[in-house]
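Progress report, Aim 2. The chain analyzed during this reporting quarter is listed below.
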Amino acid sequence: FFVFNCSDGLDYKAMGKFFKGLACSGAWACFDEFNRIELEVLSVVAQQVLTIQRAVAAGLKRFTFEGSELKLVLTCNVFITMNPGYAGRSELPDNLKALFRDVAMMVPDYALIAEIILYSFGYLEARPMARKLVQTYKLCSEQLSSQDHYDYGMRAVMAVLRAAGNLKRSDDLKNEPEDALMLKAIIDVNLPKFLDQDVPLFEGILSDLFPGVSMPQADYVKFKEALVESCKKYNLQPLDTFF
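Predicted structure tokens for the chain:
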């Protein structure tokens, strides 16, 4: 069983090579984020998949695929996954949709996943920290402005969890309270991507979820001095919002 992450750089020739290998070996393949492929390529892919499916349904031992005669192992199969809501994704052509059977999916329990990962990082208060993290993103999605680069899904949750794990293992912060480490991880990962008008809302959400928690302050003095010097060098104004 093979999993391949698709991109818009795939053409019908590359996909044809995949299908030839699958047909000859009898393997299964899952093409992840299949609808990232260009629409023109998907139309050709539909015909390629249909050729293999018809040969399998007929029980053939050998079949002709794009001008080549190939051995066919009947166990071969193709699966696809899609993220329809993301930018840069195509709608599947109708002739391609007809070749696949839909499988219903459910939203994963982000809080449970985060809790288990935090436990693996050594957090003793993993459950309340996981719930606060998930609640933070839920409130952000409801209260902050809608921007293309804002992401509150599993990728964003994992980014915060990795940051929280790194902070937990840090020698400088190992004695800090766990809620302070989680707060710092959330801020470090998310604050740089928010627009100015969304920052006060984000800070308000955190103050409600982490009341009275004082976050360990990082020493950015030298870094800020270097930024100011660079701004002056390129005739830019180092406004407070820049930092």
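The chain has a mean pLDDT of 88. DSSP finds nine helices and five strands in the chain. These observations will guide the mutagenesis work planned for the next reporting period.
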